[in-house]
Amino acid sequence: MKVVIIGCTHAGVAAVTEILKNHPDTEVTVYERNDNVSFLSCGIPLYLSHKVDKLEDMFYSSPEQLSEMGATVRLRHDVLKVDSEAKKIVCENLETDEIFTDTYDKLVMATGSYVIVPPLVGIDDSRVLLCKNYEQAQAIYKSAQTHKRITIVGGGYVGVELADSYSSTNHEVTLIQSSDQVLNNYIDPIMSDEVAKLLGDHGVNVILDERVTGFEGDDEADKVDIETDHRTIEADLVIVCTGFMANTELVQGQVEMDRRGALLVNDYLQTSDPDIYAAGDACVSHFNPEDTESYIPLATNAVRQGTLAGLNIFGNIQKKMGTQATSAIKIFGYTMASSGLTLRNAKNAGIDADAVLFDDDYRYDFMPEPQNIKIMLVYDKTTRRIIGTQLFSKYDVSQSANTISVCIQNKNTIDDLAYVDMLFNPHYDKAYNYLNLVAQMAIEKERANAES
Q1: Which of 8, 10, 77, 283 is the catalytic position?
Q2: What's the half-sphere exposure (Cβ side, CA atoms, 13 Å) at 226?
Q3: What one-character-per-residue DSSP string does 353-388 give?
Q4: Three-state SS at 77
Q5: Is the dihedral angle over the CA atoms 254, 255, 257, 263 positive or is it negative?
Q6: 48 close to 165: Cβ distance less than 8 angstroms
Q7: In 3D, which of 115, 67, 124 has the Cα closest to residue 245?
Q8: Residue 50 annotated as catalytic
Q9: Residue 12 reports pLDDT greater than 90
Q10: Whole-number pLDDT of residue 256
Q11: Known catalytic membership, residue 42
Q12: Do 346 and 387 form a contact (C-beta atoms < 8 A)?
């Protein structure tokens, strides 16, 4: 069998590895327009804040490793066209400008995503940069060495992590977010307020509910003015982090997509063309809390989908499990982790949802250095099923988000979580773990509501 994989970051690397591990005789050809594979873009803030010495450490695989496994890896090759009916692709060697065709039996679309570039005046100014791939990270790092005032447009994970990194390296940082909170896809306003306060306490100027309308560069002063719908902000450098779009133009009109261009896939990662599979940021994921197909561009989804695509091109072997969009960030020594739906998003989806907030030390007071932990548990009032959580603490609560992810995956209720067996040791928790306690709070709230 001849398999062509277009794109080789997380999903592509996972697909190659899975195919050649189980079927080493498969003819696998990888086409990647960049000169590298497997770049961990989530490590860019670590590099900018000097927590990681070399940007090259953000690669967890290499073309040589994939070649040793048996793949033909064609870097700096851009796929120009996919002809699904003829099972052919048209490619360009970006080093030699040679254009040629190749064929496939199975095709894996691991083409990833691109940064949404707002159609704003001045967006092409040399002092306005994007943040996703290796080359962009290099440009951002180099520019930051000589620019003091940095404005970040977008308050998602990337924007918040960059604000942390730049403020810790003595930059003057402004963060502009068009919605009324940061991290609005992952946490509710009460938790967002904690993050915004933390940013402010470390010198970041957080501007919410304000939309950028354009940029005006001044070459003589080596600066750029950011125009918003309320004011003008002067900066030396602007980083735009306004979300991602699926990079799927190659198969547009040939396979089914959602309204945002993400490829629709079945339980086995097949598109509407049975010989074309998709994985990672190029396709949708099944979002379990809502039981819907959603676009959730996370590395965790990409590696799982890439692995499953590599399995299932040989037959319907393993169904996808879906996702809770479980994720976390470390900001100024605090962990903010989440899984599933926020209360706001649950209500917007028409779910009769409610939430409780746990706000207490994670272990007994007699232990040294007590740390406060905040947990928001979101649940469906009708079914009592857990549908989301958010956790915030200086204590590492990241694995608790994983626990709730399993609860959501398995359709557990607040009653299940309230009394499920969890370890007790004064070093780690109280006799009832904090996850037990927040679920017991939800039970009490529902009991009070029923009695009123």
Answers
A1: 10
A2: 24
A3: EEEEEEEEESS-TTSSS--EEEEEEEEETTT-BEEE
A4: strand
A5: negative
A6: yes
A7: 115
A8: no
A9: yes
A10: 98
A11: yes
A12: yes
